[in-house]
Amino acid sequence: MYIGDPVGSYCNVVLVKGHGRNMATTTATKFATGDSSHDGTLLSEEYTVKALPGILDARDLTALFVLLLFFVTNVPNAVAGGAAGLTLWIVGGITFFIPCAVVTSQLGTIFPMEGGLYNWTHKAFGPYMAFFVAFCAWVPGPLLLLATSDLLVNYLQGLNSNWLLAPWQQGIALMVIVALAGIVALRRHRTVQNIVNVTAVVIVLIAFLIGVAGIVWLVKGNPSATAFSPASNWLITWSPWWNPFSGAGNFGLFGVITLGYLGVNIPLNMAGELRRGGRNGQNEQQVSRMIRQHLVWGVLIVIVGYLVVTFGVLVVEGQNASYVLYAMVTAVTAVMGKGMGIVVAIGIMLTIFVATVVYTNTFARWLLVGGIDKRLPTSVGRLNRNRVPANAIIFQTFAAILLVFLFFIVLPLLVGGSNSANLVLQVYFVGVGAATMLWAFATIFLFINVLKLYAINPDEFRKYSVAPVPVIMVCAGLGLISGLFAMVDTLFNSYIPPLIPNAQWWWIVGGVTLVIVIVAILISMVASSEAAWQDLNR
User: Fold this and answer.
1) pLDDT tens column, 287-316
2) Which of 152-166, 208-222, 289-303 has the lowest mean pLDDT?
3) What whole-number distance in Å separates Cα of residue 356 and Cα of residue 353?
4) Distance of alpha carbon 56 from its chain centroid, rounded?
5) CB neighbours of 182 closer than 8 A, spacing ≥ 6?
6) Distance of alpha carbon 186 from alpha carbon 7, whole angstroms
7) Is residue 281 classed exposed, middle or buried when 0-12, 13-18 and 19+ CB atoms within 10 A define those classes?
8) Alpha carbon of 25 to those of 19, 284, 522: distances in Å?
9) Cα 172–Cα 175–Cα 179 angle in degrees, nearest 5
10) Nearest Cα to 360, choosing from 181, 138, 135?
11) Strand partners, 114
């Protein structure tokens, strides 16, 4: 059955009740508290399954997961804690990362729908909260594109310290990278996914190479640059309670390391594009299995990868590599020579660029479903000839380019002088801090949604439970507490203490975050009212 023009509006799609559905839509009315259609399903649930190419399997989801969550450039943050950095990766994994994976598996199994968190929040709390949470989750998207592009620029500067010195030069480079990522994201989904799959293998091999560099360093008789004994070096230490801004201890790293695990649910933004029954021969059980498999393998690869890379850098470079983005390259260079160091640098740069493409693709899905469900202008839901959400990708790309233009070109021109570079850094990191807070805030709704859905219908919840219900509830509670704890920790520990001390960081970042949340509340009210009016007219 032909279901509509892929380059036109979804408004002309013929929706046939019961055709091509999975278990999620048939149980929608048993969970949903606010519906945009009479039987509890969203328009986006019907449309995306029929209009978008169903090409994703467990291998594809795992590759997406790895590129979204395994950024080796996060390792220098952990290195600052010495041996305790390894402990922090493990503690963050147990208290936040694994609980995120468990509840995402649960939500994805019940509702494997495009938009992921947006859809799940709709089932738990209705349309208003769904749009609000999705808006908070999407806002960091353009800044993430800027941030990953900035990492790439930093690596280019690592290859040659004379490149891209002025803010305007960096700005132009960033805009080119963001634009190229958007252009790639507009290609056929299968083509883009093949690139993602190859790149995921590349970053795993690079992680292995960095770990081997640490072992070879020791085998050659060199002393470890980090003291792994006594056992007290592995302990997490706190700042004194009477002076939380002192920066003493290593617990200040807990937030930045734990929130480095953000994004577990993002691959399932494209759950409507999974291979499934009625179209690619996959039934509901196979869809569920794909979701669980990619989370198990993804979590394992990411945690082991972070531990291996952190170990390699700690052994060769030690805490001198703290916050040095190029530390992984210099560690391999010191052991294996400049040639292998360049190979690692190129591999990391490739990974960062493809990760920018993945962020472009996955975050645009929130705009797609918002347009389909009449929460955003309908034009944002249009597909191009490759059946990808072109308007959503283009809008998001231009939003990121606009931020680059303001931060790196307009701001330095307005300020001028030698302080312009420092001001750009301050504004940039405040934006990144606020975006991280918003993303973490949206992520904790994974845990809240699971708790609410269980309260709505415990019996139906148990039918699709991926683990014993008590285990799921413990994970939801533990993840919620850890996520809130990490947010508070991030709020009280500046990303750039020399320029913005902790005592100023918390109220600047907190204030910006609060303003964005208030804007999100107002926009959500308008979007929900408009959607209700359109439903009434229909």
Assistant:
1) 889 999 999 999 999 999 999 999 999 999
2) 152-166
3) 5
4) 18
5) 360, 393, 394, 396, 397
6) 13
7) exposed
8) 11, 11, 30
9) 140
10) 181
11) 270
Q: Report if residue 4 sits inside a domain.
A: no
pLDDT of residue 101: 96
What's the rounded Cα separation, in Å, for the pair 332 and 519?
46
The pTM score is 0.88
8-state DSSP, 408:
I
- The strand pairing partners of 274, in sequence order, are 56
User: Contact at 8 Å (CB) between 51 and 44?
Assistant: no
**Which amino acid is located at 170 in the chain?**
Q
| CATH number of the domain where residue 174 is located | 1.20.1740.10
3 domain residue, yes or no:
no
> In sequence order, which residues have a C-beta less than 8 Å from that of residue 191 and are 6 or more positions away?
none
Nearest Cα neighbor of 258 from 432, 448, 74, 89 is 89
pLDDT at 418: 63
Residues contacting residue 451 through CB under 8 Å, at least 6 positions apart: 473, 476
Tokens of 393: 């990708």
Q: For residue 156, what are the domain limits?
A: 10-411+420-537
Torsion of CA 371, 375, 377, 380, to 10 degrees: -20
Report the C-alpha gap between 474 and 514 in whole angstroms. 29
Closest CA to 82 of 302, 305, 238, 232: 232
Residue 473 tokens read as 């509830």
SS3 state at 247: coil
Tokens representing residue 381 in the block? 């839901």
Place of tokens 């002088």: 417
Q: Rounded to an integer, what distance in angstroms lies between the CA atom of residue 533 and that of residue 171?
A: 42
Residue type, 443: T
Taking residue 272's Cβ as centre, other Cβ atoms within 10 Å add up to 27
* CA 155/CA 473 separation, integer angstroms: 42
Q: Which of 31, 104, 40, 140 is nearest to 268 (CA)?
A: 104
- For residue 2, being part of any structural domain is answered with no
**pLDDT for 116-135, tens place per residue?**
999 999 999 998 899 999 99
Residue among 65, 74, 157 nearest 328 (CA) = 74
Question: Please, what sign has the CA dihedral across residues 101, 104, 106, 108?
Answer: negative
**In the block, residue with structure tokens 């940039």:** 428
- Token look-up 């690692």 returns 344
For residue 505, which of 494, 515, 516, 513 has the smallest C-alpha distance? 494
The answer to whether position 1 is within a domain reads: no
Structural domains counted in the chain? 1
